[in-house]
């Protein structure tokens, strides 16, 4: 029998490493499988390298959702939202997290490891995983994303 596919792919840079480890502990505790694409320690790395790996996998539908963590969350969000079908939300508080699911159907959660603490990060991940998309008028609005022309 084949292994059940992890629903979540997670990555960070050095500034988000500690929080990534902490989020992994939380995911394990609640029984959610994930794939960690690194890094494996706090040595300085370039956040786009890890941001691209996670975002590409979500964009291609290889994973349902992704989690990215850098120092502020800003760089990772910028990278992630360049990918088609990725709706990355930088959430450093609960209200944005709730709205990012209810209204924006976010499929990639970004947090700032230097902005928030571990317990808030766990609450944000819990909220993001448990909150459904409301659909309806919000689905129509997401449809308008495809009108973007460059
Ligand atoms: C790394 O020093 C820092 O620039 C990075 O983690 C992130 O905050 C970028 O947006």
Overview of this protein structure:
- Helices cover 41% and strands 15% of the residues.
- The protein has helices at residues 17-29, 47-59, 74-80, 94-102, 118-130, 137-143; strands at residues 8-12, 34-36, 65-70, 88-90, 108-112.
- A five-stranded parallel β-sheet has the order 2-1-3-5-4, with helices on both faces.
- It is globular, with a radius of gyration of 15 Å.
- Bound molecules: D-ribose.
Element-by-element helix/strand order: EHEHEHEHEHH
Give me the CATH superfamily. Sugar-phosphate isomerase, RpiB/LacA/LacB
CATH topology: Ribose 5-phosphate Isomerase B, Chain: A
Termini separation: 45 Å
Number of strands: 5
Which helices and strands occur, and which strands form pairs?
Layout: E1 8-12, H1 17-29, E2 34-36, H2 47-59, E3 65-70, H3 74-80, E4 88-90, H4 94-102, E5 108-112, H5 118-130, H6 137-143
Parallel strand pairs: 1-2, 1-3, 3-5, 4-5
D-ribose binds at residues 13, 15, 47, 70-72, 74-75.
